[in-house]
Amino acid sequence: MAEQREPHLVVLTGAGISAESGIQTFRAADGLWADHPIEEVATPEAWDRDPERVLRFYDARRDQVRRARPNAAHKALAQLESRGFRVSVITQNIDDLHERAGSRRVLHLHGEILMARSSVDPRMRYPLRRGGIRLGDVCDKGSQLRPDVVWFGEAVPHFADACALVAEADLLLVVGTSLAVMPAASLLHQAPLEAPCVLVDPEAAALAPPGVTRISRPAGEGVPPLVRHWQREGRLWVPETLLEAR
Q1: Which of 79, 103, 106, 201 is least buried, going by the fewest C-beta atoms within 10 A?
Q2: What are the per-10-residue average pLDDT scores of the chain (246 residues)?
Q3: pLDDT at residue number 99
Q4: Where is the catalytic site (predicted)?
């Protein structure tokens, strides 16, 4: 007899879930890119041209992350995992709010702002328990430390791992993302055909591709009721009350 596999919930989260914790997004009309052009703070060329400016930008983002607290959506997903559900989180966010809420299986597609890494060897990473990065801070090979984030024009090193996780999903939950950032947006195409997909976002009606169940609410309002439903039923499935939103 074939071995029965525990159902796997794979969650893809974007800036919307962190925005509810007070972390400023990049793409909103009043977002970070409105005041800081991409090419000046978030590209390899910007780093080569003015590393001090890049470091200041990410130091400010790091301070913001440290002040933020996990919200109801982060906590609900962590609680689901603590109740014995198999939950994997793939996040486009560089904060640690999922981990602080209690999630243990978190894959950061775009890096982690509370880590520094070597400019010459991306495998050399260092936690930033306090403070930031300064010019002259070097790795064990003597090269300048940089933020451990993926800049525009750089490869996404964990994308293959994310594809493998989504391919295992029994249900794919997408939270707080515009589905406009590549290659993360293409992850939906990696899910098994039989796996339901649910999008929780205030703009879900406009953003959701065909066949995706839409919950047009902020993460903190849309995720907890869904999690409570799964806990109550003891299984992953899309409630009939949501199917009408397809």
Answers
A1: 79
A2: 70 94 68 64 94 94 95 97 95 97 97 96 94 96 96 93 96 88 82 92 85 92 94 79 49
A3: 98
A4: 110
State the binding site for NAD(+).
14-33, 92-95, 176-178, 219
- For the chain, list the domains and their CATH numbers: 1-23+70-110+156-245 (3.40.50.1220), 24-67+111-149 (3.30.1600.10)
Write a three-state SS string for the chain.
CCCCCCCEEEEEECHHHHHCCCCCCCCCCCCHHHHCCHHHHCCHHHHHHCHHHHHHHHHHHHHHHHHCCCCHHHHHHHHHHHCCCEEEEEECCCCCHHHHHCCCCEEECCEEEEEEEECCCCCCEEECCCCCCCCCCECCCCCEEEEEECCCCCCCCCHHHHHHHHHCCCEEEEECCCCCCCCHHHHHHHCCCCCCEEEECCCHHHHCCCCCEEECCCHHHHHHHHHHHHHHHCCCCCCHHHHCCC
Residue list, annotated binding site for substrate? 58, 61
pLDDT recorded at residue 107: 98
